[in-house]
Structures are given as C-alpha cells and as structure tokens.
Amino acid sequence: MDDRQRSKWSQKVTESSNALDLEPGVFTMEDPSQVARSLKSSAERSDRRKASPFRSAMSMLNFYINRAGTNLSDTQRERLEMAKDELRELYGKPRRRT
Fold this sequence. Notes:
Blueprint: H1 3-15, H2 32-45, H3 53-68, H4 74-90
C-alpha cells in the first residue's frame, strides 16, 4: 500500500462509516455545538451502530481527530476538542477533567 492509498482509507471510513451516516462537512463546521448536535443526530438515527449513540458519536469524533493528526490546525483541533465537551453535555455525561 503506497502513501496515497494509506491516506485515503481514513477518509473513506469517515465518509462511509458502517455505523453512522454523517452530515457532509460535519468536522469542518465552525461551531463546536453544531458539530456535537450533528454527530448526536447521526448516532441516534443509525440502526447499524453497535454501541450506544453517545459512544458511537464520540468514537467517530475521536477517530477523525486521531487520523487527521498533524494535518489539523490548532484552531481546528481546539474546536473539535470543544465539540467533545458539547457532546458530553448533550448526553448528560460529565465533562472531562483538565
């Protein structure tokens, strides 16, 4: 597998996840609460997910952050980390400790 193929597999997973049908551009939205609401909606609509809606949404968010790695700007990473807290709030889960 060359570098080009390797970089494409995570994009394919994000776009065609077997568990969630994601709104296009969800990870590039400016508002962290909008990202969280979109992920929550996708997770709750899905009948293919194996975990709870919260875990599925959080897993997809973490997957995207981890796979994007150094390609995420500090601003984008901060926005997506804030979306995690928003997602926790939407599901009544405690915020992470800092």
